[in-house]
């Protein structure tokens, strides 16, 4: 990725697996973002009037389009991220098909007006109505460019908003593909627009839109939140993680080691929910480490033409590779030992790496590495594992391996993470019925389920008077008689014991 010279500024898109340049994509400069917003505001007036069932039709049609164009979608994703095709198929195409169907099917129920019956003011009828925010800005990252874009675009549209998408500067082609899918299934004009560019284009979007869904790093997330605060618009933040895995001495070590290797290395470790650090109880530490090293040794790394040729791809960009190198170097300088891997191969490939003798003085245990590295630390008790797992500014996901599921469930509650798996990892993201999001600095707001939809709305309460009396008791003019009556009512309603006595006498 870079800037090409010429009349219009462009993003230059490169294939990280081959180094080949694949496209020039025109940049929308920040000063042009307002025009896209005006178009989106105009489209909003029509889009918001459509029924949820009508909007759902576009989602089903988009799903059909995806099914019919799987190869093209996978090709686009892989060409700009370098990931293995299986990962694009499972974690992006499959997920998006499921997501589209889920919100097409459930949005009507989640957005339906609710009737609340007041416990006190029985003379009123109360409705809660979910109103769309207006124009939603979706700012997405490069690591899962299809999934994490659709993940916000779909619920934002279903909630009645129009959307302007700003994909990552590293993966604009997938962002443009999302726009094309909806255009080709007939979504009305300007209901979804894509603008490409760098952070300044994203910042301009935050300055104009009515709500932001941001997925990316903690550092940028804070900037987005600050900017959104200037206009007090709602902001959803899905940020980074440093996710711990805990392996207890009674765990099924084979399953735990398989989960660890896949959880840490899939997408070359460039996943917000990657297993980024591992704590293993002393009695099983040696056996676990040996299993992990054997499994890592068997992995195939490279770029592929057909499904199943490789397991681990390259890092998507140089700055990511440099972060990984810096963390490994820092760990080794402070006493860590490399059991396998540890260095850069050609281009953007970094060898899958296992580190031991690590501790919390090292960057590899504290900062998001976002690369194919598994640091494993020996612990002497469950308490120590929990304390170390929680010793982080992040709180996105965590996992615990134990044959005692009841213990796993109990320990899960002690982990300061938005998503915890017992004897599993990462799969929580595929459970669309449950909220997904971060604790601590890993984010604000939740994807999926009714939470993921309603956060793109503002709830409006509408109260309707039932009986039409000429005046309410509390309205003007005030009188001593009414005040005495209210004081009595307060005692009767809220004084403990009196209520019971009163109802017993009746
Ligand atoms: P990033 O923060 O560098 O960029 C994310 C997006 O923000 C890009 O589109 C970028 O152009 C834009 N941007 C940059 N500066 C901006 C600004 N000042 N205002 C508005 N927009 C701006 O993140 P990245 O490197 O693309 O993604 C990797 C990060 O994302 C990792 O930290 C990862 O953990 C996190 N992530 C989190 C989740 C989650 O669900 N919690 C999912 C995937 C990735």
Q: How would you describe the overall organization of this protein?
A:
By secondary structure, the chain is an alpha/beta fold. It folds into two domains: 2-239 and 449-459, Aldehyde Dehydrogenase, Chain A, domain 1 (3-Layer(aba) Sandwich); 243-433, Aldehyde Dehydrogenase, Chain A, domain 2 (3-Layer(aba) Sandwich), CATH 3.40.309.10. The chain is built from 16 helices and 21 strands. It has helices at residues 33-47, 52-68, 70-81, 85-111, 147-158, 172-184, 199-208, 218-231, 253-265, 282-297, 318-333, 382-389, 405-412, 449-454, 480-494, 498-505; strands at 2-4, 10-14, 21-26, 114-116, 124-132, 135-139, 162-166, 192-194, 211-215, 235-238, 243-247, 275-281, 337-340, 353-356, 373-379, 394-395, 397-401, 419-422, 439-440, 443-444, 457-465. The strands form five sheets. A seven-stranded mixed beta sheet has the order 13-14-15-12-11-17-18, with helices on both faces. Strands 8-7-6-9-10-20 form a six-stranded mixed beta sheet, sandwiched between helices. A three-stranded antiparallel beta sheet has the order 1-2-3, with no helix packed on it. It binds nicotinamide-adenine-dinucleotide (NAD). The site of nicotinamide-adenine-dinucleotide has 30 residues, from α7 and α8.
